[in-house]
Design a protein that fits this description.
18 strands; Tumour Suppressor Smad4; about 280 residues; Rossmann fold; six-stranded mixed beta sheet; six-stranded antiparallel beta sheet; 2 domains; alpha+beta; 5 helices
Length: about 280
């Protein structure tokens, strides 16, 4: 298998997966439903401190799942690479499995694992500050004021678009292609495609430009033009940097996060199904 193809495997084959008594950590969104669900699961299966857990079960919606996956990138109490299994206690639940209290260790061992790599954003501001952040969904540039942004786009050192006038632009991961990228009329991309959607947000000039599909190895540079008149913010999932002058984006293959899905409901299948949903 090519090293660029996201790894899809049975969870039982993961050497880091431990689901015995007291080896599962439960985390929940700050809602009554999620908190009650966690209490019932902890009563049945125990609870493990996050730094020692073999697996994490996240209870909430997609937003909380994304927060948990960011923690699994090696931050805030979770070891890097720990498998995360979501159960839906929210609204959309695209990244979640159905909630159920029975046979949880068996479900975890039978789950399909998807190994994802984040985008790394390196943003330089008007004050010459440099800020970095990771994104599992997308990195987006957005106009801050009433006037449209003007942005130059360079891919792998070659200027591809001298000037894009728009409300913004984003680079998405395949896993995030069904999120903001889809709302901005970008393409849905299968996990195994090794592609990153580059999608404009309300493009004014060139009026008919609808974006591009880039290889996952691409290094993208956005340069903000007329920064004083047309300020732009950059956002990597939860991290916002305002008044940027340039933003570099590339996939970070050195970092990964493992997401678990019930059999026949893996992330690849969900992405395909989404393309046939009205």
């Amino acid at each position: 298998m090519s090293p660029l193809v996201p790894e899809l495997t049975a969870a039982a084959a993961l050497p880091s997966l431990r689901v015995g008594p007291g080896e599962i950590a439960f985390v929940n969104a700050p809602t009554e439903l999620a908190a009650d669900s966690r209490a019932r699961l902890v009563a049945r299966y125990g609870d493990c401190p996050l730094p020692e857990a073999g697996c994490v079960v996240a209870l909430g919606g997609d937003g909380f799942m994304l927060e948990t996956l960011h923690r699994a990138l090696g931050r805030r109490g979770l070891r890097r690479g720990i498998p995360v299994y979501g159960m839906n206690c929210g609204s959309v639940g695209f990244l979640m499995n159905p909630f159920g209290e029975d046979d949880l260790p068996k479900r975890l061992l039978a789950a399909q694992a998807a190994v994802l790599h984040p985008l790394r954003m390196r943003a330089t501001t008007l004050s010459d500050a440099v800020e970095e952040a990771l994104a599992l969904n997308e990195v987006s540039l957005l106009r801050q004021l009433r006037q449209a942004a003007k942005i130059r786009i360079t891919v792998d050192g070659r200027v591809r678009l001298e000037e894009l006038i728009c409300d913004g632009i984003l680079v998405s991961t395949p896993a995030g292609s069904t999120a903001y990228n889809l709302s901005a009329h970008g393409p849905i991309v299968p996990l195994s495609a090794n592609l990153l959607p580059l999608t404009p947000i309300s493009a004014f000039r060139p009026r008919r430009w609808r974006g591009a599909l880039l290889p996952s190895s691409a290094e993208v540079l956005f340069e903000v033009l007329e920064t004083d008149k047309r300020p732009v913010a950059a956002v990597a999932d939860f991290t916002e940097v305002r008044d940027v002058v340039s933003v570099a984006v590339s996939e970070d293959r050195a970092i990964e996060v493992t997401v678990l899905f019930d059999p026949d409901q893996g992330l690849s299948e969900r992405i395909i199904t989404e393309q046939f949903t009205a």
